[in-house]
Amino acid sequence: FSPSKINLFLRITARRPDGFHDLASLFHVIDLGDDMTFAKSSSETKDTLICNDPTIPTDSSNLVIKALDLFRAKTGVRQYFWIELDKKVPHGAGLGGGSGNAATTLFAANKLCGSPATEAELLEWSGEIGSDISVFFSKGAAYCTGRGEIVEDVEPPLDLATKMLLVKPPMGCSTPAIFKALDLDGRSKADPLELLKRIGVDGCSETVCINDLEAPAFTVLPELAELKERLKAATADKKTVVFMSGSGSTIVIVGDDDVPAFVARDDALFKAPTRLITRKPGEWY
């Protein structure tokens, strides 16, 4: 099982000299995910990736293949693999579906080859091919800094049974476009460590579940702002908290997983009830 994630809060703390941005975010792994099957390949020259979604590239641009190349480069193992990917997590969603695939691939390849690397090494290496991959090597709840590759395990801030609903419009968000539209002067001034403390004590609220990428995402996709407001209005009587995950375009509803009527009527909207999940060291999700 290859899970995805949500960001319970996301603060952009600085723009770095290399053009990337430093962030401070509380990530949590969720039970929406893809199914992946791995086997050792008899090929001595290439991996084979099969995917049910024809829009997903299966060449070396896919994070799954990048993860296998990284695994071989770091461990010296020369094994190639056969991978089947049954895609369920939408892309361009801010849910880290591709990053989850890469983390699952690193974990699986390592297991199939007799665990030549530690989980700490897999976590460290993963930052070389993507910023969000390392969060999946946490126990499920992680406070992440740097580009997202510096991972600190934290206790789950919410009950794992907390009801949640994900709603995503058909259009995805381009992460580079969202960061390009980011106004650094318009960010929240909230201390991320204070947000981490408050969510652990008081749970989710509008003042805690801050996402500095919402404003630029809503500038790039005004219909996303409208969707958030409609979801807030439709679930207000249930005391929900509504916010965007990552760089979008998924909107998260915390506190209820009933599908609002207007969402149920719209076949173009992706909708999925979800829950937070965790894992034990040495095991996968």
UniProtKB/TrEMBL annotation:
The keyword Transferase applies. The keyword Manganese does not apply. One of its GO terms (molecular function) is 4-(cytidine 5'-diphospho)-2-C-methyl-D-erythritol kinase activity. Keywords: ATP-binding, Kinase, Nucleotide-binding, Transferase. Pfam families: GHMP_kinases_C (PF08544), GHMP_kinases_N (PF00288). Its EC number is 2.7.1.148. Gene3D superfamilies: 3.30.230.10, GHMP kinase, C-terminal domain. One of its GO terms (biological process) is terpenoid biosynthetic process. Residues 213-262 form the GHMP kinase C-terminal domain. PANTHER family: 4-DIPHOSPHOCYTIDYL-2-C-METHYL-D-ERYTHRITOL KINASE, CHLOROPLASTIC. Belongs to the GHMP kinase family. IspE subfamily. This is 4-(cytidine 5'-diphospho)-2-C-methyl-D-erythritol kinase. It comes from Ostreococcus lucimarinus (strain CCE9901).
